[in-house]
TrEMBL record:
Residues 52-87, 114-169 form the Alpha-D-phosphohexomutase alpha/beta/alpha domain. Its EC number is 5.4.2.3. Residues 474-524 form the Alpha-D-phosphohexomutase C-terminal domain. Pfam families: AMG1_II, AMG1_III, PGM_PMM_I, PGM_PMM_IV. Residues 173-281, 295-433 form the Phosphoacetylglucosamine mutase AMG1 domain. It comes from the Eukaryota. This is Phosphoacetylglucosamine mutase. CDD domains: PGM3 (cd03086).
């Protein structure tokens, strides 16, 4: 094929370091930026094949999200704005790992297996975060797309969820602009909050930590559409600090402390985005200086409660379910199941898994504890809500509830977790319910918990089962964890290899912070000793 000759020629400009093996992980490829040029070129090729196969626009996002600034990464976005299908993740790894001389063979193999009609038109859209390496890496993606004779549109600097949304709109409405995105979400927010009570607790000012990333730039753009109905004080806007360094959602969640660079007063409502603005966590400090984190679990609880109440008030019969991962705080799961009487499903880490599980319900609220999540409404549920919202024959009380629900649906980016849209939704719920951040926090009390990382020679030696809650290999590790957990009250712990960083993650929770810290440390030692730890032995906290 003539296109393949061009691939052969151009691929020499994007050579693969011999022997380098990378895996399409939790959220695409992630590693040091200097090892990614060939991967980007090849993901440009793969996006074209996926586009030809699905006869739809496909997205390619250049980002490493929460990882340090020197890393980078890439993920593919499927036609409805969701993460690329699992089989295609395997093709992505196959193509990225093919040695230079095997590349055409590998490409041909995918074309054959998927019976792709190469004469079909393709369309790829590309976005990138603010990392210094992202611009040149996205040029490598363009090269890949072009040498298969296809077109691309470069959205330039966008958040990951914005690109997901653009893919969805391109494939459903035929066009998409950032302005459409801002208009849709801000209008829904303004409708939702227009009659909100002015409540003493519900201060309008929100302090935002932009992680020195793309979220900060895009929040500034969004603000222009909010008619001053949300007053934002933006910190870590990227003008001086380094991306994700001592700031951002991942730092705040894992360290359980405020980011550097934010000036927060007692009781002030604050939130942090991550490096590509697909995660958000909230927090405040109380009068004795104690830091309170409202993570993805608390966000899921706030949103689920709001939706359940509105659904009941509107007289609709829709099942609201929550989807979590093993990282969900035990208290949140108990609250959702016992107090809210909701179905709770646990999946493996990675929003692709949560998203699929949430699709099985009328309303699926999915959030990872790290603040990555959204709400999915089934097509039938959405239709019922829109129809009822238009109906003239309902009581005023029902009308009020259904209009709130209708605007809530419009405010949510259903393609993927979106810090900007989640932030507007949380702000709207607090305003409508007249709640302050402390009222929200008081819904349930988190069990003290700790997350740690351990470096091992090869993290693939750890395999897990039961939605990553139990270890299968190496032998003896799960037994060791079970014995350690049994020493503490209300304790739980699990370990899993990260799919975005070269580490093993450890999670522990228990009745006190001292116990959670001690358990996390002891489990890290077990991992270090039984799974080939490298470097210094983990020290107590
Ligand atoms: C990505 C995924 C998340 C996942 C996180 C950590 O987040 O999208 O679903 O929770 O990585 O994954 P792991 O523990 O496997 O490293 P982000 O915000 O970095 O794209």
């Amino acid at each position: 094929m003539a296109e393949f000759e061009e691939v052969s020629r151009k691929s020499k400009l994007h050579p693969k370091p011999t022997g380098l093996k990378l895996q399409y992980g939790t959220a695409g490829f992630r590693t040091t930026a200097k090892h990614l040029d060939h991967v980007m070129f090849r993901m440009g090729l793969l996006a074209v094949l996926r586009s030809k196969k699905t006869r739809s626009t496909i997205g390619v996002m250049v980002t490493a999200s929460h990882n340090p600034e020197d890393d980078n990464g890439v993920k593919l976005i499927d036609p409805m704005g969701e993460m690329v299908a699992l089989t295609w993740e395997e093709y992505a790894s196959q193509l990225a790992n093919a040695e230079q001389e095997e590349l055409l063979h590998s490409l041909n193999d995918i074309v054959k297996k998927e019976t792709i009609d190469m004469s079909q038109e393709a369309r790829v859209i590309v976005g990138r975060d603010t990392r210094p390496s992202s611009e040149s890496l996205s040029r490598a993606v363009f090269d890949g797309v072009q040498c298969l004779g296809s077109h691309f549109h470069d959205y330039g600097l966008v958040t990951t969820p914005q690109l997901h949304y653009m893919v969805y709109c391109q494939n459903t409405q035929g066009s998409a602009t950032l302005e459409d995105y801002y208009k849709k979400h801000s209008q829904a927010f303004l409708h939702l909050t227009k009659n909100a009570p002015v409540h003493a607790n519900a201060q309008r000012r929100l302090l935002v930590d932009g992680a020195n990333g793309i979220g900060a730039l895009k929040l500034r753009e969004l603000e222009a559409f909010l008619q001053k109905q949300l007053l934002v004080a933006l910190f870590n806007d990227g003008s001086t600090g380094k991306l994700n360094h001592l700031c951002g959602a991942d730092y705040v969640k894992v360290q359980q402390k405020p980011p550097q660079g934010i000036q927060m007063e007692v009781g002030e409502r604050c939130c942090s985005f991550d490096g590509d603005a697909d995660r958000i966590v909230y927090y405040y400090t109380n009068s004795d200086g104690h830091f309170h984190l409202l993570d993805g679990d608390k966000i899921a609880t706030l949103i689920s409660t709001f939706l359940k109440e509105l659904i009941t008030e509107a007289g609709l019969d829709l099942q609201v379910a929550a989807v979590q991962t093993a990282y969900a705080n035990g208290s949140s799961t108990r609250f959702l199941e016992d107090t809210m009487k909701m179905t709770v499903v646990c999946t493996k880490t990675g929003v692709k898994h949560l998203h699929h599980a949430a699709q099985k319900f009328d309303v699926g609220v999915y959030f990872e504890a790290n603040g990555h999540g959204t709400v999915l409404f089934s097509r039938a549920a959405e239709e019922q809500i829109h129809q009822l919202a238009k109906s003239p024959d309902i009581t005023n009380e029902k009308k009020h509830a259904i209009q709130l629900l209708d605007n809530t649906v419009n405010l949510i980016n259903q393609t993927v977790g979106d810090a900007l849209s989640d932030m507007l939704l949380i702000e709207a719920v607090l305003a409508v319910r007249g709640m302050g951040v402390q009222d929200w926090d008081a819904m349930y009390t988190d069990l003290p918990n700790r997350q740690l990382k351990v470096k091992v020679a090869d993290r693939r030696v750890i395999s897990t089962t039961d939605a990553e809650r139990r270890v299968v290999s190496p032998a003896g590790l799960q037994e060791a964890i079970d014995k350690l957990v049994a020493k503490y009250q209300q304790a739980r712990s699990f370990v899993r290899p990260s799919g975005t960083e070269d580490v093993v993650r450890i999670y522990a929770e228990a009745d006190t912070q001292e116990s959670a810290d001690a358990l996390a440390h002891e489990v890290s030692l077990a991992v270090y000793n039984l799974a080939g730890g490298v470097g210094e032995e983990p020290k107590p906290l």
